[in-house]
């Protein structure tokens, strides 16, 4: 039993300080700027094989936003931010767990955090229709990979920092009532993911354009009753070096207010089909 122990001790301490500045100019321009400083200290220890690692790093995360109210019908916003995504607990644990007789998974204690630069430009029309253009570049992106243990002739799954990913996209979101008793929310997104890096000592350049959309509808039936139906769809897409087939789902629910509108009872079904 001892050789299958998954005893992994992980501690992480994050110290942060930030400052924010905001200002309104001529009642049309809204400016906001911020800077966050983060210091991270982490330590992991896999007790069974007595392997351990430590991390100490400090980073700056600026963010800038500019808003312009042209008139009652048109508003524009631009934003830039730098973000961090740290490896999660399971991704760092070097413990081996079997997926099937020929494949196993293993954490990677050498994983580093990934850093993202995100730019967005959006336009809102009549305060119900928003169109957003975005560009994102992620460096040292944490990616799930399948690798080969040549000596044992076994495939294993792990995560590594895979150079960089660039994403261009356009999204449209609308929230409006169709009838007094029927409200709908629509979100559509077309995006292109471009991965560049090295895999198994070979250069990799993968580019893929995908579509994602979801719609939710709420219906006010009366006498405290309401209903909702929603669904989403994602076309064929790439996640790092893995390609995911199209996915979709439809959800529905009915609810009733009780105790003079102080409580609600709800019954729902997810992924009906």
In short:
By secondary structure, the chain is mainly β. It contains one helix and 18 strands.
Describe the protein in words.
The mean pLDDT is 91. The chain is an all-beta fold and 273 residues long. The protein is globular and about 65 Å long. The strands form three sheets. Strands 1-2-3-4-7-8-11-12-13-14-17-18 form a twelve-stranded antiparallel beta sheet, with no helix packed on it. The longest helix has 4 residues, at 89-92. 1% of the residues lie in helices and 75% in strands. It is built from one helix and 18 strands.
Strand order of the largest sheet: 1-2-3-4-7-8-11-12-13-14-17-18
Helix content: under 10%
Q: From N to C, what is the helix and strand string? A: EEEEHEEEEEEEEEEEEEE
Unreliable runs = none
Main sheet: strands, sense, barrel: 12 strands, antiparallel
Structural class: mainly beta
State the end-to-end CA separation.
Answer: 42 Å
Shape: globular
Strand fraction equals over 45%
Number of helices: 1
